[in-house]
Amino acid sequence: MTDADTTADNATLLASLGRLSPQLRTIFWPLMWGLLSALAASVVALLVPQVYRVLVNSALQPGNGTKGLWTGAAVVLGLGILEAGLIALRRQFVIVPATTVETRMRTGFYRHLQSLAVEFHDRWGSGQLLSRAMSDLNFMRRWLAFGAIMLVVTALTVAIGVALMFAMSWELGLIFVAAAAPIVVFGFRFRQSYGLVSRRSQDQAGDLATAVEESVHGIRVLKAFGRGREALDAFAGQAQELQATEIHKAKSLAVFSLVVTLLPELALGAGLVVGILLVSGGRLDVGALVAFFATAAVVAGPVESMGPLMAMTLAAKTSLDRHFEVMDAVNTIADPAAPVRLGAVRGALEFHGVHFHYPDTPPGAKDLLDGIDLKLRPGETMALVGVTGCGKSSLLSLVPRLFDVTAGQVLLDGTDIRRLSLAELRRHVSVAFEDTTLFSNSVRENVLLGAADHPGLSPEDVLAQALDAAQAGFAYALPDGVDTLIGEEGLSLSGGQRQRIALARAIAARPAVLVLDDPLSALDVNTEERVSSRLRAVLAGTTTLIVAHRPSTVAMADRAALLQDGRITAVGTHAELLAGNEHYRYVLASLTEEPRDLDTGLDDELPEDFGTGPLQTVQKGAPA
Ligand SMILES: Nc1ncnc2c1ncn2[C@@H]1O[C@H](COP(=O)(O)OP(=O)(O)OP(=O)(O)O)[C@@H](O)[C@H]1O
């Protein structure tokens, strides 16, 4: 569970449920009609005992025959059919509005997740987000369509039923209420304890979902290291914790239900004795006594269902609290109030006095980036070199504003990137990470994910050029060519193939600034050389900042910058730095030429019809 989860919202029930009101405004009338239908069904159910009363009293009158009996039976049957029809009507009224609210809230949740900064996603487990997006909203819908309406209707049914009982006999009414009062007190205490345990269970279910998600993702590592047993043990432990919570939950619900069922039964027993005494004393007629017990039977159902309905309402509160915990998370990386528009971008990138530390850095600790000054000329390729963990990836993540600087500025063509809209910034800046993420889509859709319209170039041209530049021609030889499904639910690609698709994606966006976080690490030296030489041509007009883990990657850059102790301590050509900087030589010596995930590139032969014409160079801002 994350820190964020522990902020268990202590908002009152009404305050939490009240947050639904903006959603309810648009579905107010269908919901009202649903409520009225349910209420009418209850009133009809309460009318039946009154018919019994008339029936019994008239049937017991000497000489009345059976005529009234049949009429009474027909009325009871008619009321029964009416009640069933009204219940069906309630379902009809609420089903569309409730699912509409659920869909709307789920879409809003997804939109909000997309907009939240990486820093938020670092803190929250994916299972927690998944369970909030799916099961919590699903539960909220069920509560809205059934629980909320039935709670109101149940309370009103009990109130009307008790009033009718008092009207028939205040003595019997008092006995029933005497039994109902402890239920209210007990119900109130139950509300508090059940709310806590229900929250715990929902959080634990979210953690369990995270565990499943992580082990599915990491199945290769778990298998390769033979850690399946440990993962299973850890999972079983978590599952048992959830089981214990669920048992606790079920037990407290069982105790509540016991009290709620037992007390009315005791009241009915006592009522029967008192009722017979009243009838024999002539203070109550037999019809009223029968009607009283028939009404008590109708009201007993709602009284018994009060517990589960209250519990459902509390769980719905928990679900809503969990939903709004995410919705209330502030987007720390947002558009400025009045964004500056850059127009044509040259691609001059500058880090000016940049400081940065992650949000979880202890106070007083030295910044990870401690005053970075670095200028990249338009069209220049700059390699970023430094020992492992010195902050290279972190520095790169500042350019597309995955994180914001904590001090200083990152400037694009002299403008602080925080003054641009995120959409504009990310149109100009494209990224490829070492750790590639491909979506469950075709190669084409993955590559063209961020591709903008380019005058004079069809999407097919952009795709072909990007695949060529990334030396990812193997895509044409896949079973369905570039329409082959890849990603989690598609064809498995090698590490190097994935990297090249991701690189093609970054290139297809044809950005002014390309940020590459060691995107060639999984390639063998020969393939890397081919990719590098194509990249050099393709990136001729694109400013590129590339993290290099291998000397060959450094060699393709115009200049290299050395990141050391949070600062850029040297900038120059590879040859200059090699000749004049000891730390640079030390870092380069520690870099390996071996790819971490060997990808031979043997499958890279291009189909005959690919790339036979003069290949166009992807130049920013101008059609090739
Ligand atoms: N999201 C994060 N939250 C908190 N700390 C982080 C986060 N990402 C990285 N760090 C920490 O910041 C430091 C620098 O990490 P970074 O990935 O930027 O280094 P790097 O130079 O790119 O390393 P490498 O060469 O091994 O890829 C590390 O100590 C790392 O643990």
From TrEMBL:
Q: What is its main location?
A: membrane
Q: Where is the composition biased (Polar residues)?
A: 614-624
The UniProt transmembrane annotation reads: 27-48, 68-89, 143-166, 172-190, 253-280, 286-303
Query: Known Gene3D superfamilies for this protein?
Result: ABC transporter type 1, transmembrane domain (1.20.1560.10), P-loop containing nucleotide triphosphate hydrolases (3.40.50.300)
**ABC transporter domain mapped to chain residues:** 349-590
Q: Does the keyword Protease apply?
A: no
InterPro entries xrefs: AAA+_ATPase, ABC1_TM_dom, ABC1_TM_sf, ABC_transporter-like_ATP-bd, ABC_transporter-like_CS, P-loop_NTPase, Type_1_exporter
- Which parts of the sequence belong to the ABC transmembrane type-1 domain? 33-315
Q: How does it sit in the membrane?
A: Multi-pass membrane protein
* Annotated region described as Disordered, given as residue ranges: 598-624
UniProtKB keywords: ATP-binding, Cell membrane, Membrane, Nucleotide-binding, Transmembrane, Transmembrane helix, Transport
Put simply, this protein is called ABC transporter ATP-binding protein
Q: Which organism is it from?
A: Arthrobacter wenxiniae
